[in-house]
Amino acid sequence: MPRFFSEREIRAVAVFLPLAVLVIAAVVLIRPKADPEAAQRIEREYEKRQQTTDSIVMRHFDPNTASFDELLALGLSKYEAVSLLKYRAAGKVFRIPEDLTLCYGINDSLYRRLRPWIRIGRKYAIAPQEFRSGRILPEPLVPVRFRIDTVSARYLRAIGALSKRQAETFIRWRDLHGIYDMEELRECFVVSDSVAEALEPYVIFPERKAPPIEEPIEINSADSATLRSVVGIGSRTVETIMRYRERLGGFVRVEQLAEVPGVTESNYEKILKQIYCDSCKIRKIDINFASPKTLGRHPYIAPQTLRRLLKQRQLKGGWSTAEELIEQNILTREEAARLAPYLQFGSHSGSADK
Known about the structure:
By secondary structure, this protein is mostly helical. It has helices spanning 7-30, 36-47, 68-73, 78-89, 108-114, 153-158, 164-177, 182-187, 193-199, 224-228, 235-248, 265-272, 292-297, 303-316, 322-327, 333-339, and strands at residues 146-147, 203-204, 217-218, 275-276, 285-286, 343-344.
């Protein structure tokens, strides 16, 4: 008699069948049993109750365990709450938030309002595929203030800031580079801008001791590497300072550094102790001959000021002093005081238009 299955296939079936039976039995035991009488009792009991909830209080809830009163407090009508309880009594469970839309009486608009507050409990929740090792998604902890130099990967995962792999990568990056301010925190490639923004109110940074400086750094001639060595100036701030310095023509006073976007008040105080500026190295503009493009690049010349200046220059031909610009209402006295160090009133522009 011919054999339809090999001995190896017979052994595989013999092993598979008991496992399949166990899996099916487990699903049957875990899944709540349908109770038609309970569904009828729920309908009779709650149909008689009056809906007394006057105010809606949104809070996290598990649709598998939420009570009738809790559902009303979330803004569900009596009909919608009873419908959900009857759905559970029929032996159905909610394994993912989207399962709520399967419940008769829960429309799409109600689901969209409830979706941010749904937290499926450990008993039934199924984690997304990328987190299969854990299977269950615990409810994130409410974050409290923490030190970035000692925080653990486990805590970052627990508050929902980073995944397991991201948190472990972040800790290695932190231990290698050190993190002393928000700019350096954002430099870590696993921290998105939205995560950094969410963490900012809770992060406590360690104090970074400034290395001994033999002499302050001259800010007008310093290159990017030299500026980066100043405590308080990060890689992004270096680029911003150099772009502003180019538009400005150089710094006349170190206090002008506070005008640079991205320089925070705390970093500004640190930076001032490590720098100085040589005002002889600034680049001046010949206001009588400089092109509109050259004048418009300067941060102290606003667009409306530029229009007045060009119009008067075309009519008058030029000026000899900053005082004349004030008298002709082209500049206010405050604007003239800021701009005067960058102006020259010669008859030859030289390199001013370069």
